[in-house]
Structure formats: C-alpha cells, structure tokens
Amino acid sequence: MPTSFSPLAPQNPKILIVGSMPGAASLAKNQYYGYPQNRFWKILFRYFDAPFSNDYDARKNLLLQNGIALWDTMEACERKDSSLDSAIKNPVPNDIPGFILGSPSVQAVFTNGAAAAKMFRRHFSKSLSQIPCRAMPSTSPRQRMGFEQLYGVWKAALDEFLAVS
Q: pTM for this one?
C-alpha cells in the first residue's frame, strides 16, 4: 500500500495545497508532482516569475520561500497498476486538521483536482469550516484545460491569498 510523503512546509505557511495521493512516477522519485507532464511546477514557477527548474531542491525552495505548504489528503491507499485517482481504493486520510492547528498562519487550503477535493470534503470540511478551501482544477496532464486557462484559474486563487503580481 503506497503512502504519501511528509508535508513540505515553511515556518509560517499562508496556503496549504493538497493533492490526493502521489502517483507512481512521484513515488519512484520521492518527489511531489514528479511526473514530468504534470503542470504543477510550471504554474508555480510562472506565478512567482522564477526561471523554471527541474531541480527538486529548487522546486521545494520556491514553495518554502513563498509561504506555500504541500501535502496530500491521503496518507495511504490501495491503487493497483495505476497512478489514476479513479483507481484509488480504501483511502486513509492524513491529519490535515492537525497540520492546520499546528500552523495557524494557514489562510486557505487549495485542493489540486477532483479526488483531492472529494477527499477533503468527506473528511475535513466540517472540522476545517473556518478555513477557506478552493477546489482547484487538477494540474495533471489528464486535465483537458489548456495551460493558459489552467494557469489563469490558479493565478486568480493564488492572488487572493498571496497578492503577487
């Protein structure tokens, strides 16, 4: 049964972005959003007007320097022969409420994709009703939204809490 990574978090995060569960490529690389076609990192590097990098330390530093924490809604799940969220069975939730309690600087939670949003609503929406939650379109290449449109949606949500131009 695959397990998610530990949270990646700066000292005082402003936003917590949660995915569902790392896919096979991410698990193999031991990296959040490690699948090369996932657009997560491209969106964030562009948003912060930083030169894109494939270096994972540079990617982590981009988030940490800009007040963004990263985690997954699921601690573990069953998912046979697939990285698809639709193949997830028996999800075990992470302690998102505990993370928020320990990080009172978090102003919002963004869910990356439908599976993360569904898991968040099912397990955390009541206990975290005081925190705004934005159900964001997935950065996965399976998301048919073009990059410019996807970036625009993410930029608008990030602007609401980070106010970076």
A: 0.90
